[in-house]
Amino acid sequence: MKSAQLELIKFCKNIISTWENTDDIMSLYHFNNIKKSVNTELDSYHNDIKDKIYDSLIDLLNTIRKV
Prior knowledge:
- By secondary structure, this protein is mainly alpha-helical.
- Helices cover 76% and strands 0% of the residues.
- It has one domain (3-66).
- It has three helices and no strands.
- The longest helix has 20 residues, at 47-66.
- It is globular.
- The mean pLDDT is 96.
């Protein structure tokens, strides 16, 4: 696996772990945290890729919230 792919996997794991450790999965904080983290921690990625990562994480969060 390429190092960029591993970096992205670790990034996603970190985001998801914040959800795991929260006492309020419904908090709007999570949406803001995803956006902020994508913009700051993935600054070397192209904007279209960052947008897709953001959208995917939001979709995953929304799915988890529905369960």
